[in-house]
Amino acid sequence: MENNKVGFFKSIQFKLIIIYVLLIFIAIQIIGVYFVRQLEEQLVSNYRTMLDERANLLAYNIEQEMVKTREDPQTLTTDINNLLREFFSVENAEVQVIDINKTVISTSNRQNTHIVGQQTTEVMVKRALVGTGDDRVVRDPQTGQRIQIVIMPIKSDNVTIGAIYIEASMEEIYEQIQQINSILATGTVIALVITALLIILVARTITSPILDMRKQAIRMAAGDFSNQVHVYSKDEIGQLANAFNDLTARIKEANASTEREKKKLSSVLTHMTDGVIATDSNGNIILMNKRAEELLETTSEVAIEKSLPDVLRMTEAYSVYELSDFTDGILLDFSNEEQDYLLQASFSVIQKENGPINGIITVLHDVTEREKIEHERREFVANVSHELRTPLTTMKSYLEALEDGALQDEELAPRFLQVTQTETERMIRLVNDLLQLSKIDSRDYQLTLQKVDFHQYLHETVDRFEMIAKDKNVTFKRKLPAFPSEVQIDKDKITQVIDNIVSNALKYSPEGATITISLVNQGKNIRVGVADQGVGIPRESQAKIFERFYRVDKARARNVGGTGLGLAIAKELVHAHGGKIWVQSTYGNGTTIYFTLPYSVSHGGA
Predict the structure, then answer these.
(1) What is the sign of the dihedral through the CA atoms of 400, 404, 408 and 409?
(2) End-to-end CA distance of the chain
(3) Which of 350, 374, 400, 551 is the residue whose CA sits 20 to 30 A from 326?
(4) Roughly what angle, to the nearest 10 degrees, separates helices 74-87 and 12-67?
(5) CA separation for the pair 176, 212 (Å, rounded)
(6) What SS3 state is found at 409?
(7) What pLDDT was estimated at residue 527?
(8) pTM surpassing 0.70?
């Protein structure tokens, strides 16, 4: 909400002023128009009545004078002039007396005496002389003033003997009306000003609580719920203010609850080990937690408003309704040439009961290690089954031959029994190796550490193998330092490591070859190397020789009695001591296995 002050001309106060001023103005105008019109009619009517009364009185008296017998006719004009001065004293009015011959015999206007003795040409006078009176309002063609004309016949015994012609200006009446209009206009202005001032005072009692509520609404929009609106009265606006204060308190409580839930949700989303993505009804992303950003190697700023299938790099542009069908989730492959990377996406619909789908919640799991372990488990089971099936099949075949009569053959029987014994020993070695790997994997054994002079220890180990290698004509070469190298090791476990490595060197070395045993001090570690002169290992196989049951040359490995677990066991035991193991080999030029051991092992378990 914008925190801008409302201008006076846009405020409710100004609107109230305008409304009430217009109402007062319209009311005064209606009253004024009606009053002035009625006043005008009344004044005009009264003026006309006054003229009629004066004309009737004058006509009666003139009729008496005209029928009177006179010795001198000139006295008639004199007497009528006296009557006009006596009975017709109306300002701005002129009366003329005309005899039956249309001759003007008298006028009240002294400046117009020249018309006396002249005949009038007025049509209305002619009509009056025949007995028809008239009255009307005309305008002076020169001045434009309104003039009331009254023409009345003078009768004696129902015989018209003359006429009275009256011209009376009505401008005085209209000037009075104009003055009254001016008074009304002035009164209207004064009334409107007073009304506006009163409305300003009254409007403030209405707008002040509203302004307070507006300010509070702005503060609420900014998150400030600490203030309350002042209640000025107990009327509807006061009740509105009370309701607004109650609303403020409720919103404050609801906002605090929402903030708590938001923080909880944010904390949960932030610390979840799974990635969470939320979309709108169109499938566009509106929320993504940190873990999802890490799993998808992107940021919320980049992903927001993008389509979920695009961010998940799905080959098809699925809609929200289509994604909701993947209730069991789907596996997403983000692998590249350097490493495997698999994600499992599970979809959950955001939907009110029987309502439209409002969006989808996607949960991402990194299943690379799980899939790898599952693959290794399947491969391990297949390899174990295969390794056990071969000796068991061989034993079954030879035992069946012995049962069929070979047991009675003094030449074949010992050879068949020897093969059976060899295969049995091979299975025993395989099972022992599997049990040892199982024990290492389960972490339920402890290293029995002791200080050993590794220099002397290697000499003793090489001496033992030299006795074994005499029949194969293999020579051992020692590159060992002259000074002692004391390390903490589990002697039995490291002996097994060296036995497995040296045994492999003997198996794959040709007759007359040399096996080199080396020992080097490297900082806090010692490094042991066993180099043979065998056929070597191809580069693509070097990273896999420490995997279980992996053989570079499977046929030859089985012929020499290997189980494919020796180097895998060696790797686990070296890692249990806190060391590392690796291979260096050039195909056709022999192989060197290196492993390191720290002088002191910080933990006593695998």
Answers:
(1) negative
(2) 64
(3) 374
(4) 150
(5) 53
(6) coil
(7) 93
(8) no
pLDDT in tens, 184-224: 888 888 888 888 888 778 777 777 777 788 787 888 877 77
| CA dist., res. 375 & res. 559, Å (int) | 27
Q: How far apart are the C-alpha atoms of 39 and 177, rounded to whole Å?
A: 8
If we measure between CA atoms, which residue out of 510, 503, 556 comes closest to residue 533?
510
Residues in the chain: 606
- Do 469 and 532 meet the contact criterion of CB atoms below 8 Å apart? no
CB 599 within 8 A of CB 524: yes
Looking up tokens 């992996």 gives 550
Percent of the chain with pLDDT over 70: 92
34 phi and psi, to 5 degrees? -65, -45
Find out whether 449 and 601 touch, Cβ atoms under 8 Å.
yes
C-alpha distance from residue 299 to each of 160, 277, 283, 339 (Å): 119, 12, 18, 22
- Which two three-digit tokens encode residue 349? 């619909």
| Phi/psi at 119 (5° precision) | -85, 140
The C-alpha atoms of residue 598 and residue 528 are separated, in whole angstroms, by 11
What are the DSSP E strand ranges found in 408-474? 450-453
171 and 140 Cβ atoms separated by less than 8 Å: no
What is the pLDDT confidence band of residue 551, given thresholds at 50, 70 and 90? low
pLDDT at 528 over 90: yes
Q: Residue 85 corresponds to which tokens in the numbers above?
A: 């001065």
Structure token digits, residue 119: 């005949």
CB within 8 A of 431, min separation 6: which ones? Answer: none
CA-to-CA distance for 285 and 273, rounded, in angstroms?
20
Identify whether the C-beta of residue 151 lies closer than 8 Å to the C-beta of residue 125. Answer: yes
Q: Of 388, 437, 438, 408, whose CA–CA distance to 558 is shortest?
A: 388
130, 147, 318 from 144: Cα distances, Å: 31, 9, 92
Residues 6+ apart with CB under 8 A from 231: 209, 238, 241, 242, 245
Amino acid at 402: L
DSSP state of 217: H
Separation between Cα atoms, residue 304 and residue 302, nearest integer Å: 6
Q: Helix, strand or coil for residue 191?
A: helix
Q: Given strand 93-99, what is the order of strands in its sheet?
A: 104-107, 93-99, 159-169, 146-156, 134-139
Between CA 105 and CA 95 the distance in angstroms is 11
Q: pLDDT digits over 60-112, tens only?
A: 888 887 877 777 767 777 778 788 777 777 777 888 888 888 888 888 877 77
